[in-house]
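pipeline/complex-builder :: batch 7 item 3
reading input block
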Amino acid sequence: MQTPVTVPVSVNSEPPWVLPNRGIVGMWCLIAAEAAIFLIFVVAYIYYLGKSLTGPLPSQILELPVVGTICLLSSSLTVHAAVSALRKGKVQRCTFALAVTVLLGAAFLWTTAAEWHHLIYDEGFTIRTNLFGTTYYSLVGLHASHVVVGLLFLTVAFLFSAGDRVDERHAERLEVLSLYWHFVDAVWVVVFLVVYVLGR
Amino acid sequence: MANEALVLESIDQTAPAGHSSGPGVVYEWLTTVDHKKIGIMYIVYALIFLVLAGAQALLMRIQLAVPNNHFVTPQVFNRMFTMHGSTMVFFVGIPILFGFGNYLIPLMIGARDMAFPRLNAFSFWISAFGGILLYLSYFAGSGLYGAGSAPDVGWFAYAPLTAKVFSPGHSTDYWTLSILMSGIGTTGTAINIVATVICMRCKGMTMTRMPLFVWLLLVASCMVFVAVSPLTAAQIMLTLDRYLGSHFFDTQAGGSAVLWMHFFWIFGHPEVYILVLPAFAFINEIVPVFSRKAIFGYPAMVAASVGIGFISLSVWAHHMFTVGMGPAGNTFFVFATMVVSVPTGIKMFNWLATIWGGKVRFRTPMMFTVGFLFQFLIAGLTGIMLSAAPFDWQLSASYFVVAHFHYVLVGGILFALFAAFYYWYPKMTGRMMSETLGKWHFWFFIIGFHLTFDFMHIPGLLGMPRRIYTYEAGRGWEYWNLIVGIGAIVQAIGTLIFVYNLVRSYFRGKIAGPDPWDAWTLEWSTASPPPSYNFAVEPTVGSRRPLWDLKHPEDPDSRYE
């Protein structure tokens, strides 16, 4: 108990002590938690398929969102291009790739907005209509809100990049953001399959 | 490696900055991102809620102590058991355990702070606001008269009772939103803990050399991602139902009330393990230090914890045997529930093997630990009884169930928490807690505990349902309920002694010094309380017990691992 206040410290040279990047580990954890939220909404969607007491049915009013899907999936490629450009220190290419990513993401959001406008104003189909409306708007809306958050961050990254405030030291931070964006895209693949393919 | 270790003073001798006082202190605590201060805020905030929710329990026991009692109205009784359960789980259990995790993990792995200090502060404050929001319901809405419009739907808030038609007003919304906020805070802290453990370990602190405390909090935090998120999703659905008129749990429109039960218990049962794993973590640190032996079966302990983490994700529907899931579903969940007791049993035997042949020091932390071991065993055994579906059909929603899970939560987790308080209080404040008051606390609390929760099983077996507000005489329940009520008062006295001890020791306690227990993990190598940077030089470790290596350079652990 009379031990002096000490910590052990080693002076001899050893293999370097390298641990994973905390931003990337943190993002993977967030993705795990978000994936569980989406999973519950997807389960609710599948569980309530065909259980609506009134119409309309998904097959009557849903169209395949081909354009939006192409936009969103290709934005995954452009954000990847932005990260690898920044890693090589090519800031201008990174800025360009980020700009394209933001535009593609915005285009996806626009197609979703157009679809919802059509459903609500032309078909009179809302979240109150039936179980299909409940699960459809909540699942697609949850995904769209994640797209909005991702777009906000991507826009900030774009502004920094356009203002020439970034260099290759920030590549890992951009990679954290790109991980999130890839996740949002992957969720869209699931939503697309469940809502527009399986559900119809 | 440790042989070549050079020993350096970890504390630099620069004079501490002058103590600010008054508003300066408040500002400092409100804006802090220091993991130690946030940890202490978590713990203090949880203690305040512990006293509040404990008082609610006491009022309920007074109401039930004699038949045909009119101490509180039925409405108030409903609000009380709802608030008691919700507070204890979301605003006592999770914050107090994460508080200890926050405080101790960076110290144990030789880091200077958590991976994301600002996220840490955010998570604390959003959880704190969640708790405040829940209690605001007493004042908001219809005001305090008749205890305000506090939620009264039970802590698991079964549908369709939570629908707008059956729960008008805003009390259920207070519940939903505060749980949602607490969920966001919990997830944030869990992300922080996992990133800290994986990315912030000091040199030489490999995964297999981490203290078991850190391992168990890592497992519990990983469980948070998959367990708390479903609850967050379900609360979003309930909010949509109540505000936008969607039909998730609206049985009139084809929605399913059973789906809510599934979603809630997918959270609810792993939650028990999220609470109990940190309790195990305390025991893992205290048992070896007070038995003067290294922990028995370290790899088995790690494997058992990870095993509990996985298995506990597939046992939730044992809360739903009376719903009628059919033989296949019932069989699966009976089996899974029984299997989860295997890794728990492994832990139990490892603790006993650690104590076996040790030179046991019966100080207050060890006394609470022994209480934990005994009571957690009993709680596990009644758990196995309830896991058998036919037995559960008889006793579901009876006081037997209430007695079982309070045996886990009070007899297990709360005893471990008290042990942790007595063990780490010297580190956090620099002063020892009074040993005499600690022993009084222990004996009052353990006698009160057994009076309350041993005898609570019996009215359950005699058919007394939970959540009833009163009962008529002549059913054979009166005497048992009276004993239970007396036990509750004895426990309350014990808790008051504990709170008095906490406050008194802060001013009058014996100065502890850096290492009052002659312990072996890194947090005891720095001053008590630790400086804001934790370690003046980054430590290097060569074994699971770095301070043992330091104190016994002739026979270091690193030689055997």
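note: Chain B touches chain A through 73 residues (CB under 8 Å).
queue -> next item
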